[in-house]
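Service request form, structural biology core

Requester: graduate student, group of Dr. S.
Request type: structure prediction, single chain
Budget code: on file
Notes: please return the result as structure tokens.

Sequence provided:
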Amino acid sequence: MVVLAQLIWCCIIRLLTMLNVYEELGETSRRMILAELREGAKSVNDLVASTGLKQPNVSNHLARLRTRGVVRATKVGRQVFYSFFSPEIESIILSAFRTRQEVDDEFTLSELPEKLGMLAILGDQIGLNRIIDSVLRAGYKPLEIYQEIISPTLNLVNLKADSSDIDIAQYRIAFSAIDRVLARIAHQQMSRAWNGRVAMLGCITGEHCVVELRMVSDYLCATGWRSLFMGPDIPVENFLSAIERHRPSVVILGHSGMSSLNKIIDLVRAIKRDSNKYGTPFVGVSGKAVTQNVASLTDSGADLCSEGIREFASRFSSATFEPLEPVSVDDLLEA
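Core staff response, request fulfilled:
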């Protein structure tokens, strides 16, 4: 009888533990923190860097997780490292996240662009969302997804359109479906606190590389920028008016076709020529037509020419600014 009572009590304790853990996993920020702790013990600074959350928020979430018996703190020298409270807690959390290996057993990343391309051309949004959700649950970062999956998918769709394997209707259905996938990815990632800087992105008249530019915009938003994304077919005079009005720190132009090269060069020169009117923004050009036009674009004054999102991210972060002190909403209201 005593053994049975002990067994029942153990089951109750385990059930309550699981309920505690799953309750914490239900909150987005704490789920991000717990996901990072799967890699091992981390300090508050480690978690701030990897999640993009503010330091006070991370500390508050960790305090709650400690109170609930989900994580524990270990002091090493002057630093405090956080880890799962027990092997049992770790087991529960690991089982709640699908691992990358499980995704790789279902499909490999190299296979995904072709699969996603066909689903996009068919307009199968449910199928696209299912695959992207699986990849996100597996822990792949948005930048990895943009570069390893979305960019090759876009290239495949463009190749099929260029070779007349699909018509204009199928092409637009595909790009519309992929654009909704990007919105889904952006919705599921946390943006960092505003770094005090504004970026403006758009395509001039005749340019339609909206999806590629959307990836750049979403990347900037996730890393703390306020991104003003104007979309395709913006007349040059309207583009210049927007720059004059908002005075962005960065202007990114989409470039996917040779026919608009001269207009892009003229726009870059106009921005660089009149600093009193437009400020001194860092001007970048991004898109599939950049590679064959780097010299012309650089000569016109472009600060960065990049074809892919990963190249853009790495070169932009090293080529441009030191981050400003974050500006809070309260600071803006007081100003």
